[in-house]
């Protein structure tokens, strides 16, 4: 017999209502159910678990008593039911509501037989219940059900065709890609200016004014007004204004007052406005408005954007008579993305020191979990190199290529003057990481210099990145490298031998890159022949199909250009 049928057919005999005072939690529950005229069934297990299944307004509930009756939880078993196709959406909405609801806990279960997902709701009760209390709690569950159903149905309708997406993963991926885009933009901004503030360096208002005002020399700052909503902070001292961090007012930095506290860096506002009044070399006063806007943040960095907006000139007849030199001295509109590090140097040193000692201990114990990078890290004797090697890898793992590059260059500049075997291994790996970061940033020419160091290393990941650099830049040497490595594989394994899985994937990669380079040099027939041969390779099938379609597009474009008649005068 189903639970619903049991509840409908079995009822405890009615007992006189009792006042809730001086009752236990269980007694107050029974008293409330009797007062509300709810049919219920009591279930008791050997471990002391007690549950009262009851029906209220045609809905099935279960009141569960734990810890010898000291804790009561009201459970609504079927708050929402949907096809299993919408599992990811339901899971996503459960997480959204759990983050917003204080008393209600939503979770789900899967019914494979009926191919559906059901959402359940738990609500804890911490005090003796009166009938009105029980009604109030159940009504709050009904309200959550209404809101959850409304929002979830809308999300499912808005995302038709995408119900198999993993929304948590997609959100994390989007956030990660956003941070990567910010780091890439920062790396492509002016190479002469560091826009990253940290414990040791601040990008100041004067640094930004030097960019925003272009050729206009700021001789003296007259006044700075920082506007945050209705609050205005005014500075009128030239020396003070020059050294103020640009993020003043937008980002709050709280320095630790004791060794037990950590440095806190957080957004204090979402946007602020700065108005800077200054004198140029001719003692002419100008005014520049700077808009600062909080963009994104992750575990280690805050990102914000600064827009410089010059004050509009007066609209009068004298404007037409201004000289070009005066117009040239007008500040230019500038938009700059900046970063502020959350993590202080002390914390970075502490984390590195712990991980370095841990790696060294594992190396002594010959821990099989250590990979090649961990072994190199454990064998490093120079703390400066180790710190930058460790944090470079951490940044690289998060996709922060510009930050990682800074750390790897610091390590490289020390390692290249060393000569021991251990350091040579480290130099080889650091060179590879520098080249990898530069490739990800599209700087293939620079990347080749560092990747070429490892052309004879025999490490497949290093060789792959070297070939990617020369192939993507359109360098003829790509054919030399590819043919050389294919010949090496053939010499070591023979033509007919079954290759190890990693070598087989490397050979597939080499053949794809060879055909790709043929396209770059306009040899479409040869490229087409090679890509058709790769259709039989599971590793290369999808890529080959895309490139064959691209070859057809190139041919169609060439044919269209031949058929265009020259224009007649």
List the helices and strands and how they pair.
Layout (H helix, E strand, L loop, with lengths): L2 H7 L15 H11 L4 E5 L5 E7 L2 E8 L4 E13 L3 H14 L4 E7 L4 E10 L5 H28 L8 H22 L7 E2 L7 H8 L7 E9 L2 E5 L2 H6 L7 E4 L9 E4 L3 E9 L5 E13 L3 E10 L13 H5 L5 E8 L3 H20 L7 H8 L3 H15 L3 H15 L5 H20 L3 H8 L8 H13 L4 H17 L7 H20 L3 H11 L6 H22 L7
Parallel strand pairs: 7-15
Antiparallel strand pairs: 1-2, 2-3, 3-4, 4-6, 5-6, 8-9, 8-12, 10-11, 12-13, 13-14, 14-15
Helix pairs in contact: 3-4, 9-10, 9-11, 10-13, 11-12, 12-13, 13-14, 13-15, 14-15, 15-16, 15-17, 16-17, 17-18, 18-19
Class by helix and strand content? alpha+beta
Q: How big a fraction of the residues is strand?
A: 15-25%
Rg from Cα: 34 Å
User: Could you tell me the number of beta strands?
Assistant: 15
Strand order across the biggest sheet? 7-15-14-13-12-8-9
Mean pLDDT: 81
Oligomer: single chain
Helix content: 40-55%
Overall geometry: extended
Major sheet size, sense and barrel closure: 7 strands, mixed
Q: Show unreliable segments.
A: 1-19, 319-329
Separate helix tally: 19
What distance lies between the first and last C-alpha atoms, to the nearest angstrom? 92 Å
């Amino acid at each position: 017999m189903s639970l619903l049928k049991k509840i409908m057919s079995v009822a405890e005999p009615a007992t006189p209502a009792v006042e809730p005072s001086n009752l236990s939690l269980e007694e107050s529950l029974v008293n409330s159910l009797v007062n509300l005229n709810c049919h219920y069934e009591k279930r008791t297990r050997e471990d002391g678990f007690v549950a009262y299944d009851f029906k209220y307004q045609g809905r099935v509930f279960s009141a569960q008593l734990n810890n010898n009756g000291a804790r009561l939880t009201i459970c609504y078993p079927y708050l929402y039911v949907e096809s299993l196709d919408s599992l990811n959406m339901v899971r996503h909405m459960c997480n959204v509501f759990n983050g917003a609801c204080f008393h209600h806990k939503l979770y789900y279960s899967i019914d494979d037989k009926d191919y559906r997902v059901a959402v359940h709701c738990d609500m804890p009760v911490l005090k003796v219940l009166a009938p009105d209390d029980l009604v109030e709690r159940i009504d709050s569950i009904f309200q959550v059900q209404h809101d959850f159903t409304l929002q979830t149905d809308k999300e499912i309708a808005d995302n038709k065709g995408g119900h198999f997406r993993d929304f948590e993963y997609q959100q994390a991926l989007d956030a990660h890609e956003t941070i990567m885009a910010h780091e890439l933009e920062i790396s492509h901004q002016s190479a002469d200016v560091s826009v990253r503030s940290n414990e040791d360096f601040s990008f100041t208002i004067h640094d930004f004014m030097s960019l925003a005002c272009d050729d206009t020399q700021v001789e003296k700052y007259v006044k700075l007004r920082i506007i945050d909503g209705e609050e205005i902070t005014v500075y009128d001292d030239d020396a003070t204004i020059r050294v103020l961090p640009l993020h003043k007012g937008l980002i709050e930095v709280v320095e630790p007052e004791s060794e037990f506290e950590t440095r806190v860096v957080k957004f204090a506002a979402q946007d602020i406005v700065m108005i800077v009044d200054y004198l140029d070399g001719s003692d002419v006063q100008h005014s520049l408005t700077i808009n600062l806007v909080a963009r994104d943040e992750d575990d280690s960095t805050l990102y914000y954007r600064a827009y410089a907006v010059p004050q509009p000139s007066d609209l009068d007849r004298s404007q037409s008579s201004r000289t070009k030199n005066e117009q040239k001295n007008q500040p230019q509109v500038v938009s700059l993305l900046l970063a502020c590090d959350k993590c202080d140097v002390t914390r970075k040193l502490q984390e590195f020191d712990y991980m370095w000692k841990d790696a060294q201990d594992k190396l002594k114990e010959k821990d099989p979990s250590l990979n090649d990078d961990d072994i190199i890290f454990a064998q490093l004797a120079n703390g400066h190199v180790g710190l930058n090697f460790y944090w470079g890898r951490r940044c690289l793992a998060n996709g922060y290529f510009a930050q990682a590059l800074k750390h790897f260059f610091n390590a490289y500049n020390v390692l290249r003057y060393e000569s021991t075997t251990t350091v040579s291994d480290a130099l080889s790996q650091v060179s590879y990481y520098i080249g990898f970061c530069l490739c990800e940033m599209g700087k293939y020419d620079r990347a080749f210099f560092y990747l070429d160091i490892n052309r004879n290393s025999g490490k497949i990941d290093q060789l792959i990145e070297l070939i990617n650099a020369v192939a993507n830049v359109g360098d003829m040497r790509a054919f030399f490298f590819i043919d050389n490595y294919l010949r090496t594989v053939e010499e070591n394994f023979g033509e007919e031998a079954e290759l190890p899985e990693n070598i087989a994937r490397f050979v597939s990669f080499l053949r794809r890159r060879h055909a790709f380079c043929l396209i770059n040099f306009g040899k479409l027939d040869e490229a087409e022949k090679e890509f058709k041969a790769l259709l039989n390779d599971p590793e290369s099938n999808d890529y080959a199909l895309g490139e064959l379609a691209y070859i057809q597009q190139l041919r169609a474009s060439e044919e269209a250009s031949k058929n265009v008649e020259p224009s007649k005068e």
